[in-house]
Write a structure and sequence with these properties.
alpha+beta, Fumarate Reductase Cytochrome B subunit, 4-stranded antiparallel beta sheet, two-stranded antiparallel ribbon, globular, binds protoporphyrin IX containing FE
Length: 270
């Protein structure tokens, strides 16, 4: 029986890619954010409408989900959309239910604000402490400054980023973050994730008593709630693109890197 020709296989080597703390905090973050998103939708369903300002001006939400007869209706920035079956009115166990997001997207499934809050607030601690560990260890080891935060050179190189043209190297060039990755990752860890925590804290009455300045900073409780929701939408959009990029660039090697810390690199590519 003939053996495969060793020389025709591209030479690869296995190298260290992600530190243990980066991997641990990344996956804890994925679990915490998933549970917070789904329990957040449960909390949102208690009043599925968003406003700007200090008070809920009930006649002028910028986003609301409701039912009109047997139709689910979503109102967004002055426009009305028929969202029957998904937003406003959906089915659960064969029954029509009037609620913002459908039961299959919420934790717990059935309407239960108290349990939704318990899940959300417990994982908010996990998410906050985990995020602090990632940021502090990243600053101390200089992983953030060296590998993640974009430099002026990265910003200049952005239009030439091969990832924007879906070109992914499998060689040593894959061992660094490219400008678009740096912008997306730092946008998350420096802007969106801290903002979701701060606006969350702004909605807590005990935090209002301790730090009344937070309410002024975000223009009131309703604005803080709206910004909190917009951040959650941005996180979902980031995750969709992030996962698509992982799939496009070689999911097995990428996931292997984020799970075991090691990736294989081809010697015959840049
Ligand atoms: C829940 C939201 C998520 C956030 C906020 C997030 C954020 C990040 C960040 C900031 C990094 C860079 C970490 C560093 O080097 O310091 C990263 C890398 C990575 N993430 Fe995620 N991630 C999320 C979900 C996921 C999911 C669901 C997957 C699974 C497909 C995934 C797979 C990866 C992989 C493979 C890398 C390494 C990429 C590379 O080396 O080029 N992430 N993620």
């Amino acid at each position: 029986m003939s053996q495969p020709d060793e020389k025709s296989r591209p030479a690869t080597r296995v190298v260290k890619r992600h530190a243990l703390l980066v991997r641990l905090t990344h996956w804890i973050n994925v679990v915490a954010l998933t549970i917070m998103l789904l329990s957040g939708l449960q909390i949102f369903n208690a009043h599925p409408a968003l406003y700007w300002g200090k008070k809920a001006t009930f006649d002028s939400p910028w986003l609301s989900m409701t039912a009109q007869g047997d139709r689910g209706v979503t109102y967004f920035l002055g426009k009305t959309f028929d969202t029957t079956g998904v937003l406003g009115l959906s089915e659960h166990d064969g029954q029509k239910v009037v609620q913002g997001f459908p039961a299959w997207t919420t934790i717990p499934h059935l309407r239960d604000l108290a349990s939704g809050r318990n899940w959300h607030l417990f994982f908010a601690w996990v998410f906050g402490i985990n995020g602090l560990i990632y940021l502090l260890s990243g600053l101390i080891s200089r992983h953030l400054q060296r590998d993640v935060l974009p430099s002026p050179k990265d910003i200049k190189a952005l239009p030439r980023d091969p990832h924007l043209r879906f070109k992914f190297s499998k060689g040593p060039d894959s061992l660094r973050y490219h400008p678009m990755q740096r912008l997306a990752y730092s946008g998350m860890v420096v802007i969106v994730l801290p903002l979701v925590i701060l606006t969350g804290l702004t909605m807590s009455p005990s935090m209002n008593a301790a730090f009344p300045g937070l309410l002024d900073l975000f223009g009131g409780r309703q604005s803080a709630r709206s910004i909190h929701f917009i951040c959650a939408v941005l996180i979902v959009l980031f995750v969709i693109v992030h996962v698509l990029m992982v799939i496009a660039s070689g999911p097995f090697n990428q996931l292997r890197g984020m799970i075991t810390g090691k990736v294989s690199v081809r010697e015959d590519q840049p």
